[in-house]
Design brief:
alpha+beta
C-alpha cells in the first residue's frame, strides 16, 4: 500500500535513507538525514514522502519536493529520491511509488514533474520512462551552502 509518510515513520524511513546513502556512495550522517527528513514529516509545505507499506513494514519511499517554475507555468514537483529495499526490487513497488508521486503532484496542482538519475543507472531510467518521463539534455549543477 502506498501512503503519505507520517511522523511515526521517522525511524523506518531514516533506516532506508541510510541504506540509500550507502548505496549511492554519499554516506551522509544520520543527523544530516534527519535534518532533511524532519520538515517533510511535519507538513506538506516543502514536499511529501510517500512510502510503500507491506505487512506493516516500510519497504520503499519516494521523496517529492515542491518548487515553482516560470517555464512550467507554476508549481513544479521534483522527485528527489526513490528507494526500495534491495530484497524487494523488481516487484512493482518502485512503479507504485512513481505512480503515486505523479498522482500526488497532479492533485497538488503541479504543472510538471522533474527527476534526476545517474546516466549509468539504466534500471531506474527504464522505470521512469515506463511512466512517461523523457530525457532532457540539460545539466544539473550544484553548490552547497
Amino acid at each position: 500500500m502506498i501512503r503519505v509518510a507520517e511522523a511515526g515513520d521517522l525511524e523506518a524511513i531514516l533506516d532506508l535513507l541510510v541504506d540509500f546513502s550507502k548505496e549511492v556512495g554519499t554516506n551522509l550522517a544520520v543527523d544530516h538525514l534527519k535534518q532533511g527528513l524532519g520538515p517533510l514529516l511535519q507538513d506538506n509545505e516543502h514536499g511529501v514522502i510517500l512510502v510503500d507499506v507491506t505487512h506493516d513494514q516500510i519497504l520503499g519511499y519516494c521523496v517529492i519536493g515542491w518548487s515553482w517554475g516560470i517555464e512550467s507555468g507554476g508549481q513544479e514537483a521534483l522527485i528527489d529520491e526513490v528507494f526500495v529495499l534491495k530484497s524487494h526490487r523488481n516487484t512493482g513497488i518502485g512503479s507504485l511509488l512513481i505512480a503515486g508521486a505523479l498522482e500526488t503532484a497532479s492533485a497538488a496542482g503541479a504543472k510538471a514533474v522533474f527527476l534526476e538519475t545517474e546516466s549509468e543507472n539504466r534500471e531506474s531510467r527504464k522505470l521512469y520512462e515506463k511512466h512517461g518521463f523523457k530525457i532532457e539534455h540539460s545539466l544539473w549543477m550544484r553548490k552547497l551552502l
